[in-house]
Amino acid sequence: MGAGVRLIVRGAKTLSERTMEHKTCTSLRIVENRPLGGGAQYLLSLENPGWGAGGKTWRPGQFVMLRPVSWGLELTWARPFSIAQVDEGGLRLVIRPAGRGTDRIAGLAPGDEVFLWGPLGTSFVTEPETPTLLLAGGVGLAPFWGYAARHPAPANLRLVLGHTIDLAAFPLDPFAPLAGAGRLHTFHQRTMADLDAFIALLERHIADHGRAANGLVLACGPGPFLRTVRRLCDAAGARCQVSLENRMACGIGACLGCVARDAAGRNVQSCTRGPVFWTRDLAEEF
Amino acid sequence: MGAGVRLIVRGAKTLSERTMEHKTCTSLRIVENRPLGGGAQYLLSLENPGWGAGGKTWRPGQFVMLRPVSWGLELTWARPFSIAQVDEGGLRLVIRPAGRGTDRIAGLAPGDEVFLWGPLGTSFVTEPETPTLLLAGGVGLAPFWGYAARHPAPANLRLVLGHTIDLAAFPLDPFAPLAGAGRLHTFHQRTMADLDAFIALLERHIADHGRAANGLVLACGPGPFLRTVRRLCDAAGARCQVSLENRMACGIGACLGCVARDAAGRNVQSCTRGPVFWTRDLAEEF
Amino acid sequence: MDLSVSFGGLTLKNPVLTASGTFGYGLEFTPYGDLARLGGFVVKGISLLPREGNPMPRIAETPCGMLNAIGLQNVGAEVFLRDKLPRLPWRETAVVVNLYACSAEEFGDLAGLFAGEEGVAALEVNVSCPNVREGGAAFGADPAQIAAVTAAVKRRAGDKPVIVKLSPNVTDIVAAGRAAMDGGADILSAINTLTGMAVDVRTRRPRLANVVGGLSGPAVKPVGLRCVWQLASALPLPVIGIGGIASAEDALEYVLVGAHAVQAGTANFSRPDFAFRLVDDIAALAAELGLDSLDACRGGLRT
Amino acid sequence: MDLSVSFGGLTLKNPVLTASGTFGYGLEFTPYGDLARLGGFVVKGISLLPREGNPMPRIAETPCGMLNAIGLQNVGAEVFLRDKLPRLPWRETAVVVNLYACSAEEFGDLAGLFAGEEGVAALEVNVSCPNVREGGAAFGADPAQIAAVTAAVKRRAGDKPVIVKLSPNVTDIVAAGRAAMDGGADILSAINTLTGMAVDVRTRRPRLANVVGGLSGPAVKPVGLRCVWQLASALPLPVIGIGGIASAEDALEYVLVGAHAVQAGTANFSRPDFAFRLVDDIAALAAELGLDSLDACRGGLRT
Ligand SMILES: Cc1cc2nc3c(=O)[nH]c(=O)nc-3n(C[C@H](O)[C@H](O)[C@H](O)COP(=O)(O)OP(=O)(O)OC[C@H]3O[C@@H](n4cnc5c(N)ncnc54)[C@H](O)[C@@H]3O)c2cc1C
Ligand SMILES: Cc1cc2nc3c(=O)[nH]c(=O)nc-3n(C[C@H](O)[C@H](O)[C@H](O)COP(=O)(O)OP(=O)(O)OC[C@H]3O[C@@H](n4cnc5c(N)ncnc54)[C@H](O)[C@@H]3O)c2cc1C
Ligand SMILES: Cc1cc2nc3c(=O)[nH]c(=O)nc-3n(C[C@H](O)[C@H](O)[C@H](O)COP(=O)(O)O)c2cc1C
Ligand SMILES: Cc1cc2nc3c(=O)[nH]c(=O)nc-3n(C[C@H](O)[C@H](O)[C@H](O)COP(=O)(O)O)c2cc1C
Ligand code: FES
Ligand code: FES
After folding, report:
1. pLDDT band for position B25 (50/70/90)?
2. Considering only CA atoms, which of C1, C24, C124 is closest in space to residue C80?
3. A124, A93 contact by CB (below 8 A)
4. A72: CA distance to ligand 1 center in Å?
């Protein structure tokens, strides 16, 4: 599926192909906004956006652009958030308050209206038989909720979560099967000194998914974390996809504000050609 | 009291005199925001701002500037509202949604925070023994709530309320004593054709408070209404105060955005030299 | 109600265009609306050769607006003509090409590439390139340069209407507009972005790698309205109003001060169906205001 | 932490001033804070004779900002000196007088009235009067006029520091600043308001009786920062940063791009205790950022 998806996204598309992607923009209401870990993160549930049959038309790694109606004219842009899951509870996002926009999203209450478009961008590849390492930095955990839930052979998955805030701020229930099987590892980075230990942990797990194992590494988190992962994967010969968190205005490839540098030295939109990239397709300093 | 008040407001004040006026600016929470008449107006109750002994340091006709914290940077100015009453329920305002700001105020919920300063401006004169006619145009009713409640001889008061929206949108309980005594008159202006009848009604009542009766007319409402009242009072020889509703930015005399033209042809701040003026102190076209 | 407008050799089914750089090449918006419903759209500024644009970060949000310093990243004229234009519904809506170059000659060459293209409804000239030869000030700041660039484009534009897009970063925008008129412009559009800057006190860095960028969005609407009013009052050329349009009211405000059409820009980022909805909203508002056509209110400001 | 700043002959206990026209004569704010806590304040623009200003309406709210066309209503120099200045705590805080005139001679006469006044800390020259003799463009748009006006004020100002307040409505604000420097200015302040306009589609009227007015507030902060950065980078004169300051972060942004002090304007309308709180907030933010003094971060933008 992965290769096919990339083909559709990258090739010249006809209008009808695009329409088949079921991207929509729509008004939705907040169903629930649950603080996790005392408000360090929020589990935001929205009405189901109705993205076609069984909600299966979105793929883990994709994201939505979300803009509360209450922002009026003051905050111009919507904000991008990974789709964590779509289930009976609706569309689930995990939000980390990190600035003017996310702070206000944390204050949304059930019934409040947001404008939302998606699903957007590329997704993580799924290779059922491949040992697959999921590396999450903080709220980068979000896309792996849906990824793990949909994976046809979860026994091949292993997840490492690095976090600076309390572990209680993360929705870990969806990963209970992994945890039960001893394949969920969390690392609390409290001080800068812990960083080396965390990198060593990453290195160990990446080594298990390197050239010899023909494994796969999927990573989502802040830029420095992704660059470290990429370096370690290159060293271990591990195939690796990263999900970039570049600032976005439109989310649909129009503004050119979110570009990353690709391996050919060209600037490509991380909202449409990403957010998920094979590291081999990105420049050294992406 | 009236003359004294005008003296303090108009004379050059020392700093300590000003401080004695107990103007404050403060954060307050919404206690209740009750829609009246299906949302045509709102009875907004706020925490008591604590304006000194028994809350008696404000005078009916004065106003507050109110700015919800949720406006962020988008709406620059606070909005002016007449103080309707301060009682066990807190500070009461009556709000008519009429634009971007008041529409959002209508959506405030208990617990929401606003920034507020006041009490501001001049007040209606109280002459206990004088037959006094209160003329309210729509939400111009608000300041007469406190005025009627405090008047030492309510038997000398008569109130005429002209309204275009449903009467249910007005807080009439406070005027029950007047209504009981047959001294509350309401006029529902549905079409432009009703205007003549309304003016005739005003004229009749103003005549009763004219030169012969040495009466007093106090009016609050939209500009055209006030100009009509002024014309009728001049004709009847009635002494008259009007409360202007000029657009305001600061509410404290600093911006010069709210000026009215006085009888000497000078531009005076309606927020500090008003909002309540004797019509004789205003230019023909104020 | 008939929303169509006709001016300066351009006929649009309605006055809603989208602004260059805020609507990609049009195709990006097809999942969110039917391009054929728009009066037209202006594509991202196109140069002779492809450009990679400025380093990141290139955008910053500001109160009621945003800054951008994209640096004119674009696929270049050749790729546009080969890969983009053929896929656009140009028979049903006006596709306007925004031209970006850094000399009058280059502008002329660029215009020549589009002059014979059936799918192109008009050319819009973006005169914001910093002119290195003249000490780094943008073309757009110098009336003589505006006239020269406009004339160069007009000479090579065949029968395509030439729109000159004016910068608000000048002492006298009417002088700039007059220069464009003297150079042969058919239509003026205004405003481009205001030069601005944003800073992060914690990192001590500018929020744009380029340090300065262009301010757009509702924050600049008062400046846009003022410029369009000045131009429409002083000059006989039709004007397309741009700057901070976020509602049908905003669009009609531009018409009232004299605009023949409008371009919506930054608002396309706030929601991707914005321009499509704007068409409907303008129709509804015009009906509410009892207008028979836009001609009935154009320039009708009561001063 | 020591917030005091000293520049161009002016010493302030902290960098917070308030902007002319947004703080009345200071007295209006005494119920909401102690004037002596401010670095200083600039009073409403003062002319030789009293002025009644423009017709109403004079103000309109715009997205993240406002327009004003007050038209320089003021009590005139004589009444100010007699009734206002003596009541101000000028021993404890800097009272800056903003001068408004429509010719170099008039400006000189006005400066002469304040030169000997102990209570006046500095003179700020507002060059925004439309110059009728020169065809109606504001002084502030013409470097030669700026130099002439500055020189006229400086000649009569005695030992008062002369601040020249620059308009952003120009193609080249550095040229304007250089002209002020050539005229003998001690300090520059920027920005004054951007010329803008607002319209009511329902009444079809401009929202200001004067049609155009001055845009201020957070909407213009990116333009203000850009102007101050350009001035501070290009010229050796100290600059006071103005435009859209609504928080301590905003104020320090101006310091980072090179400002010695700031003026808060429109924000005083959003809450009358704004300027007083800003002093505390800047102290708190500077402490959080580990700054020993403002000198430690002035102009410290990492580009
Ligand atoms: C594909 C993708 C998926 C993501 N998924 C998630 C997710 O699942 N969960 C999650 O929590 N996050 C996620 N993020 C990150 C999230 O989008 C950002 O944290 C969010 O956009 C930050 O917005 P903010 O307004 O809170 O922060 P800010 O960075 O404060 O604001 C954004 C903009 O405002 C400007 N700004 C800041 N302060 C001011 C000021 N005072 N005045 C003027 N301008 C100012 C900044 O310059 C910046 O341009 C994702 C990002 C991407 C790209
Ligand atoms: C002394 C006094 C007492 C008052 N007492 C009361 C009272 O007790 N109860 C009551 O209900 N009212 C009262 N009022 C009136 C009340 O203050 C006004 O109704 C209120 O200020 C209107 O604010 P608004 O934002 O809702 O309306 P608007 O007029 O829509 O907004 C105000 C400003 O926003 C601008 N604006 C509007 N739309 C836009 C747009 N789309 N884009 C940009 N700018 C726009 C306008 O130009 C205007 O400057 C009183 C007024 C005064 C002066
Ligand atoms: C991200 C971005 C890119 C832009 N690129 C261009 C461009 O390539 N050519 C051009 O003439 N204008 C460009 N502009 C300016 C817009 O076309 C428009 O003039 C300006 O944004 C004001 O309109 P608005 O406030 O509605 O956005 C760009 C604006 C933005 C926000
Ligand atoms: C209502 C009002 C009146 C003003 N009057 C003057 C004035 O008399 N003289 C002057 O130099 N600037 C005047 N200004 C401009 C301000 O001093 C300031 O330069 C401008 O508002 C930008 O700052 P701000 O965005 O913080 O308001 C006035 C501004 C406003 C809003
Ligand atoms: S966010 Fe606009 S192009 Fe990616
Ligand atoms: S509202 Fe500012 S002076 Fe009256």
Report:
1. very high
2. C24
3. no
4. 17
Point out the ligand 2 atom lying closest to the alpha carbon of residue B103.
26
Chain position carrying tokens 């050609």: A273
- pLDDT-derived band of residue B10, with 50, 70 and 90 as boundaries? very low
Output the ligand 3 site: residues, CB below 6 A.
A 255; C 19-22, 44-45, 68, 70, 72, 98, 126, 165, 192-193, 216-217, 220, 242-245, 264-266
Q: Which two tokens stand for residue C190?
A: 């205004």
Given a cut of 90, whether residue A55 has pLDDT beyond it is: no
Q: Is the C-beta atom of B255 inside 6 A of ligand 6?
A: yes
Q: What is the mean pLDDT of chain D?
A: 95
* Domains annotated on chain C, with CATH: 5-54+70-196+215-296 (3.20.20.70)
User: Nearest-CA residue of chain D relative to B27?
Assistant: D271
If one counts every other C-beta atom within 10 angstroms of the C-beta of residue D161, the result is 20
Subunit contact B78:D270, Cβ cutoff 8 A: yes
Question: What span, in angstroms and rounded, lies between the C-alpha atoms of C257 and C238?
Answer: 12
Residue D229's H or E segment, with its range, is helix D221-234
| Active-site choice (D64, D102, D129, D297) | D129
Residue C129: active-site member: yes
Cβ distance C204 to D300 less than 8 Å, yes or no, reads yes
Bridge pairing between strands B184-188 and B157-163: parallel
Closest ligand 3 atom number to CA of residue C19: 17
Best D30, D32, D269, D277 member to test B by mutation, with max B CBs in 10 Å, is D269
What is the total residue count of chain B?
286
Q: How far is B164 from chain C (nearest CA, A)?
A: 21
- Minimal CA–CA distance to B241: which of B138, B116, B135? B135
Q: Which residues of C touch A247 (CB under 8 A)?
A: 57, 59
| Alpha-carbon gap: D217 to the closest alpha carbon of chain A (Å) | 13
pLDDT for C137? 65
DSSP code per residue over D30-43: GGGS-GGGSSEEEP
Nearest to C76 by CA among C113, C130, C131, C108: C113
Distance in angstroms (rounded) separating the CA atoms of residues B253 and B270: 8
The pLDDT value recorded for residue C174 is 97
Spell out the alpha helix ranges (H) of D80-142.
104-115
Length of chain A in terms of residues written:
286
CB contact under 8 A, B18 and D22: no
Question: What local confidence, expressed as pLDDT, does residue C197 receive?
Answer: 97
- A228 in contact with chain C, both atoms CB, cutoff 8 A: no
Residues of B with Cβ-Cβ distance to A73 under 8 angstroms: 74
Name the amino acid, one letter, at D128.
S
Residues 6+ apart with CB under 8 A from A185: A158, A159, A160, A161, A201, A205
pLDDT in tens, chain C (303 residues): 789 999 999 999 999 999 999 999 999 999 999 999 999 999 999 999 999 999 999 999 999 999 999 999 999 999 999 999 999 999 999 999 999 998 999 999 999 999 999 999 999 999 987 765 555 567 788 999 999 999 999 999 999 999 999 999 999 999 999 999 999 999 999 999 999 999 999 999 999 999 999 999 999 999 999 999 999 999 999 999 999 999 999 999 999 999 999 999 999 999 999 999 999 999 999 999 999 889 889 999 998
With a 6 A CB cut-off, is A249 part of the ligand 5 pocket? yes
Chains that touch D (3 or more CB pairs under 8 A): A, B, C
Q: Which of residues 96-155 of A touch D (CB under 8 A)?
A: none
For residue A255, report the distance from its CA to the centre of ligand 1, in Å.
Answer: 16
ipTM of the complex: 0.94
Q: Which tokens belong to A36?
A: 């996790």
